[in-house]
Please model this.
Amino acid sequence: MTAEHTDTADVVVERLDAALRLTMSAPQKKNAIGSGMYLKMVEALDEAAADASIRAVWIRGAGGVFTSGNDIDDFRKQVDSDDWPAARFIDALVTFPKPIVAQVEGLAIGIGTTMLLHCDLIYASKDTRFQLPFVNLGLVPEAGASYLLPRLIGQAKAAELILLGGSFGAEEAVTLGLVNNALPADEVARAAEAAVMVLVKQPPNAVINSKALLRAPLTGNLKDRVREEIVQFGAGIKSEEFTEALTAFMERREPTF
Model:
């Protein structure tokens, strides 16, 4: 594949023939996603959605790490805004009409896991750790996870992952149907690229229409749930529970609720 790329706001955007590759690249914070990164990815996704020559999007993280989740300090600054960059990114994913391939390695924490619910083909390294630590932090999940997970993996397992907030591995993610395949670390990029190369050669309208049909049973009131989660997430970030959870994390102690 021939690459043309720009590097802005800790996101590398590359045009690879008929595909667009987005690389989250903030290694100093394990690719935690801040406002600038969200906005750059929204811009890239919006442009890709409108560009008929782009057939697929490939999302990955730099340095062998997908993402450690939201940049919480940055996110706290957004709670009084009516236009959260994170919410715009989630909306861009939910409405994106073309296939999204995810290359997941190392860590997929918080939105690093929930964004995968809106990707179509997901390849993870066997050593990847996934986690939905929202309740641990005094928050609710986002990106429609409270709506999608019970439908995808069942109510009991969804409750376990969200309410207990423990981490789980790539093999379990495959078993749950959240990931297509768990591979050795040196094979993940090749698997993602191979999928992208097939997708860009498929009939584009058939791919777009098939994705819409596949997603239809999951959409329902998804957008309403995403908005409700964002409201409650914002309220949670202003809460005493979140303050204690974050303080305890920074002080390397158990929180007291």
Notes: The radius of gyration is 17 Å. The longest helix spans residues 35-50.
